[in-house]
Specification:
The complex is a heterodimer. By secondary structure, chain A is an alpha+beta fold. Chain A has a single domain, classed as Ferrous iron transport protein A (FeoA) (SH3 type barrels), CATH 2.30.30.90. Helix content of chain A is 17%, strand content 42%. Chain A has two helices and six strands; from the N terminus they run ββαβββαβ. In chain A, a hairpin with a 2-residue loop joins strand 4 and strand 5. Chain A is globular. The mean pLDDT of chain A is 87. The mean pLDDT of chain B is 85. In chain B, the strands form two sheets. In chain B, strands 2-3-4-1-5-6-8 form a seven-stranded mixed sheet, with helices on both faces. Among the domains of chain B are: 195 residues, Rossmann fold; 146 residues, no CATH class. The chains are: A alpha+beta, B alpha/beta.
Amino acid sequence: MTTLLELAEGQSGIIHKLNMDRLLIQRLNAMGLRRGKKIIVLRKAQFKGPFHIMIDTTELMIREHEASLINLTSAAL
Amino acid sequence: MKRIAFLGMPNTGKSTLFNRLSGSSARVGNWPGITVDLHAVKTFLGGHMAELVDLPGIYDLQGLSEDEKIVQSFINNNKIDLAIVVLCSAQIERQLSLLLQLQKLHIPCVLALNMHDEAKKMGITIDAVLLEKKLKTPVIKTSAKYGEGMVELLKACTQVINQKISTPIKKIKPLNASDLISNEKTIQTLIKLTVKYPTKLNDKNTKKLDGLFLDPYWGLPIFFLIVFSIFQFIFTLGKPIQDLMTQFFNFFRMDYLEPLFINHHGIFESLLLDGLYLGVTTVAAFVPIIILFFLIMSVVEDSGYFSRAAFLMDTLMEKIGLDGRGFVMMLMGFGCNVPALMGTKIMRTKELRLLTMFVIPFSLCSARLQVFLFIITALFSATYGPLVLFCLYLLSFFTIFISALIFKHQFKNKEPIIIELPPYRFPTMNQIVKRSMLEIKHFLTRATKFIIIGVLLVWALTHFPMDVPIASELTYSGQLGKWLSPIFHPIGINEQLVIALIFDFIAKEIVIGALAVIYGVEGSALAHHLYSNVSQIQAISFMIFTLIYTPCLSTIATLKNESKNLSFVIYSVLWALLLAWVFSFIFYQTSLYFSS
């Protein structure tokens, strides 16, 4: 099982599971992060900095810790 | 009276819509169960007096974030006759959930599909008529920025508030997993029926701009260039205005107020002039800077650049428990701490915001710079002067970082840092002006009383008992200085300078004037007097102390306003005092050791 953390710049994946408590899941859902959605990593900041990701029409900045909690079904090329 | 609440996610133009419908007369009000300020306005709608309330932007009705709690408590404690749910049309898919949650509570809603112009440009079409039928809620396409759809929206609101409500409004309850899934299904079906997405989304401008602003090499230099230009703009424009105001206040005092009291030099006149008038003018001096600051900040915020800046600085700031937005505010603090503290409003997690507010007062602001320049030119040669000043700036950064590091566990951020990077947008003049007017109103109503009381207190300390020279060692301030001397002696600050520190507390701008009163000499004579009475080591110790301890009364008043937490303010003031003393002590004692 891969997580968002393992994706490189330009790669994408499908969300399988959000590994966190229910309230947080609800919040992330509202920001567009939902099961079955495609995430594209637009860029990563240097020195283990945040990720810049896109889901549908929404772009987000997400830190490494939160990225590690998002499980993906398949890491596409 | 009908109560109409504006609800929506962040970055949907909710507040712009609120401003459109409310005009410029919004005020800050108090509601049961809520400790923060919400903007509200009374207006006439559909034959009723109606109160429009702008609730904070939230992602979810449940949730534990500060803003979510505010909205929950507002809904649970106040009867809402109508909720105007504002969403960003291009992101309708993920934003509909908020409306569904409100409908479950039986709150009458009107849905505003805002920024419909933006969605159209991206090629997204929404069938509002069908959506309205399916949701059983009026759906209006709007563009708050350009004022489109406002008439239709008001009409829909009028209709809804004139309907009889049959089912009582429920309180918010946690959703269970099945609720979530059923909500999700409803949304998917609705979206499939009513929204058409283009095969490829075209938002080329945002992509191109991000390529530049978030470039791994150019991003940071561009960021610092932008911050530097903002800084230059605010202070090259603000400083002359401030100076002009000071001149005017002095002129008004000399030519109009003092002649009024020409024959009475009693305590009452002194109270009016040196107490009350000084207090009022101290408050007024902040007005131009705050207005300019928020003019620029709303451009930066509304354009979408602010979250990009957060992205750029986040890596470093995460290490000291802050985030990228905090860094921008910290830099602004080097101009003036007051608007920088007010600007932390944009950070929506409480702990993060408190920690940022905790460190901002250590930023060497322009008022402190004036004091340092006077002392440095009086006591140091042209070769060493700039070096001393440079070291003070370094120390300022150092105290910020060290305080954040020490207290990052106290103000531990429990929220995930996920920040939306909205598309770049052109802010309109109307929005910008309204925002700064609101902020200045806010500052004046909340800070004035506090600042004037503080000024009067210092006035009393330095003027009583009545039969001794003002600010002399025989006044209460002098006695306080003597009493405190065991504390200040080890850091090289003598009794007269302690009295100056008491004045310092009001505003750094008046320190030079205070020294003039204390020593009884002015201008170059004062500089000379300092030169012969205060050693360089003492002077640096005094400057270190001045740099780190409480910047000014206005800063404290703002800390209080923004945090709504008196113990936080006391905590922050005490920490600053302690840190100031420790740094001065280390410097003074080691210098003494090496110079002897």
